[in-house]
Amino acid sequence: MSIGVNYMNRFKYILLLILFLYSGCGCKKSPRPMPNPDNWKDDRVEEIADHPRLLLFKGEEKDIKHMINSDPYYRKIHDAIMDEADQIVRKKELSRKLEGRRLLPVSMEFLKRTFYLSYAYRLTEDNKYLKKVEREMLAAADFIDWHPEHFLDVAEIAMGMAIGYDWLYDKLSDTSKEKIRTAIVDKALKPSLKYNDWANKNNNWNQVCNSSLSLAAIAVKDFYPTLCDKIISRAFRTITLPMEQYEPDGLYQEGYGYWNYGTSFNVLFLYEAKKYLKDDKGLSNSKGFLKTAEFMCHMVGPTGVPYNWGDNEPKAVFSAAMMWFADKTGDNSVLWSEKDILGSNSNVLKDRLLPAAMIFGKNVSLKEIKAPEKKCYFGTGPTPIALMRSSWTDPDAIYVGYKLGSPTIPHSHLDIGSFILETDGIRWAEDPSREKYNLVEKYGNIWNYEQDSFRWKIFRLGAMSHNLVTVNGTEPIVTGKAGLDKISDNEDFKYAVSDLSQLYIGQLAKYRRGIGIKDNKYVIVRDDFKSLNRETTLRWVIFTSASVQLRKNKAELSIKDKRLIMKVKSSGKIKMKEWTASPQNEWDSDNPGKRLIGFECKISPDTEGFIEVILIPEKNKTEANFLDKDTIGW
After folding, report:
1. Lowest mean pLDDT among 5-9, 144-148, 293-297
2. What is the mean pLDDT of residues 285-290?
3. Is the pLDDT score of 123 beyond 70?
């Protein structure tokens, strides 16, 4: 009897021990969170990496500290981030305040704050940064929504929340983590299933939204695997639309500032896909995409100012994404302009994605950057462009940008055939820059690109403010297109020629413009055309900050002690003129210190003619001659 009892007791003990071990109660590892009663949550068990899993993994702070100690340029970037983080700590938390029809300024600032503060905490472990970023995230979680009607607003906040949640996961309270995680899902991931027109676009909206939502999904994927897989799969499927626009040679159709926006977020997606998901499905090897850093390098002139065609500002910023391209391609010459930007002043180190430079730059030295070999960049694709210079190392070098394409491309102006010119450290022929969206949207729809739309009545966006030819006071045809028809990168004559006839249907029978740098000493702008069966007046202008003295078929532009000589030769009668750049309508911004200079040219009916303008730095005025050659013969 006693033997049976002992046997049964022993059996019960063994059974209880097995059940105890099987339940996992004896393990040190934290149990998987219980399922959330959410339609998008399922119960499948998946292995998922611990936090942090976005961009900068645990222990990689040591790599950044090594960069800071070994390279003064990275020290400068780091110090700029830390200085800004210290200023953010003293600021009041952000509130949900629309500016016009957008929450975007708040969203962008939120991303900047969370990225900078999270970086600062991970590099210093100073709790003042942790406490501040936690307050910012909880405040954003309390917003009624993140304004899904303008989904870029949602995307930027989602990216910031994801980085803060992921990077500080082990330091946040359970209550804070749940609130932040719920906000990411309810205010970003779920709304993106309804507000998703951006997924069908081929511009920056697609890149910013897909990238931000994907990182947010990865951050909370262990709690919402089905929903998050849906978000990430959509990104891989649709981000190809804007990435195709870089083909074949890297040009970005929306210009300098929007390159920094769309491409930077695109790079964050590719980096995370490769690093965490272990597979970017070959997207980072897209030939056009890999060439786009060359485009951006050429976009900045010797003055340090970018060619700001379209809705872009003449303001250079240091781009973290360029570090990724330098590492990916093994060519650090693409950082030539970035190094100059970095060396100028700390004001350019304000971009909200700046901490990414310390992640992407792990294998990239900024101390020894070679100048690019090519002095010309000729880009095709939706917005063809020619970028030419006489030198990369001479601060007084000649630099010319010539913009083509179509006015109907997103963020384009009526500027097809326009150009900019720099020499002697001065931008003589300028682009009039963007207009403030919130200012002009009060007066009309600026996103309608049709011929008679309000967009083209805005001075800075219409043809009359750009460096091109207009006919009889009429705007060019917005449905017209122009490409690069003939190019040369020869040292004695770098040039680009384009047939602009489609832009002037009903105004000219035919029209070609060629622009080039001759002997690295001066610039030639040649227009060849044929008039229709009526007398025609051509207006040729440049938008400039220079003061001017007009003479017969000649003008002298001056800024401080520098001079640029303009000489004109034409088959028609020339009258040199100056026009105001002051606002003509209540919706136009002022253009202080700017003016339009050039001339009018009278052309007889049914006449083939030409205009040739040479633009000469004063030091080379005795060495410049008219080419006297039709652009067909260039």
Report:
1. 5-9
2. 95
3. yes
- Alpha carbon distance 16, 36 (integer Å): 30
- Please give the Cα distance from 118 to 438 (Å, whole number): 31
Q: What is the mean pLDDT of residues 71-75?
A: 93
- pLDDT surpasses 80 at 448: yes
**Distance, C-alpha 362 to centroid of its chain:** 22
Q: Cα dihedral sign for 342, 348, 354, 355?
A: positive
Buried-state track 42-77, b at ≥16 Cβ within 10 A, e below 16: eeeeeeeeebbbbbbeeeebeebeebbeebebbebb
SS3 at position 489: strand
Q: Which residues fall within 8 angstroms of residue 121, CB to CB, at 6 or more apart?
A: 127, 129, 130, 133, 167, 168, 171
Decide: 482 and 500 in contact? Cβ < 8 Å: yes
Mean pLDDT, rounded, for 550-565 = 97
Taking CA atoms, 164 is separated from 36, 115, 219, 244, in Å, by: 22, 7, 10, 32
Q: What are phi and psi of 482, to 5 degrees?
A: -145, 140
Mind giving me the DSSP string for 563-618? EEEEEEEESSEEEEEEEE-S-SSTTSPP-TT-EEEEEEEEE-TT-EEEEEEEEEEG
Asked if residue 300 lies in contact with residue 316, where contact means CB atoms within 8 angstroms, the answer is yes
Helix-helix angle 104-124:72-89, to 10 degrees:
110
Return the exposure string of 324-356: e unless at least 16 CB atoms fall within 10 Å of the residue's CB, then b: bbbbbeebbbbbbbbbbbbeeeeebbebbbbbb
